[in-house]
Amino acid sequence: MPNYRLIIEYDGRDYAGFQSQPRHPSVQGTLEAALAQHFETGRVIVHGSGRTDSGVHALGQVVNFTVDVEREPDRVRLGLNTLLPPSIAVVEARIVPATFHSRFSATGKTYRYRVFERRDRSPFSTGFALHVRRPLDWGAVEAALPTLVGTHDFSAFRGAGCVARSPIRTIDRAEHVAVEGGEHHLYFHGNGFLRYQVRRMVGTLLDIGFGRRPPAELQEVLASLDPRRAGKTALACGLCLLHVDYPPESLTG
Prior knowledge:
It is a single chain. The chain is an alpha+beta fold and about 250 residues long. The protein is built from 6 helices and 10 strands, in the order E-H-E-E-H-E-E-E-H-E-E-E-H-H-E-H. The protein has helices at about 25-40, 75-85, 140-145, 195-210, 215-225, 250; strands spanning about 5-10, 45-50, 55-65, 90-95, 110-115, 130, 150-155, 170-180, 185-190, 240-245. Helix 1 packs across helix 2 and helix 3 packs across helix 4 (about 195-210). The protein is globular.
């Protein structure tokens, strides 16, 4: 039974997150429906590299599934893209070893958070970036970012309902990049993230950028392990899953 691996992009605004949910549209449910139609079979269960929340986007979400039908991966990609809505696209398909699992084989993830800093909103960023009307002190944000790098207990940034067994995570990239046109990107790469972790870290960094707390306070928040010390959870619209890392041997056997 072939094991297919897909890389998909999606606009998260139309969905209540990646994971299937009763009575709410999801990326997983929409993809599974398209797969059942493409392969002309019963339900095809899709495994994702992780659960993105309602409104969160992806440029590099990875999924895998097995089905008792073998087809050329390009045929699967093209077929799915004719069946899926415009908000979801398959950008790569391949057959991988039976041992590959999009979640359990992953070794790291990269997220980007977009902030659009301008007095007036833009139709080209609405729904895909957090719009802020007054300037932030990005120097203060950059001074705080190194605090997040390393292996830490990230309980202070853990969202309610998180089912992860351990709050210990390793972040090896926390970076600010200024982009033309008033746009700013915050990049985070790590071996995994807790529910709402990136958005709560961003919310705390925004407090620092707006002068509501000094950069040094981020260390105090992290050490407190208390979610009440963190900033508000930043809006989902600015968050995008960019890439998921896998060891080469997991893709080739």
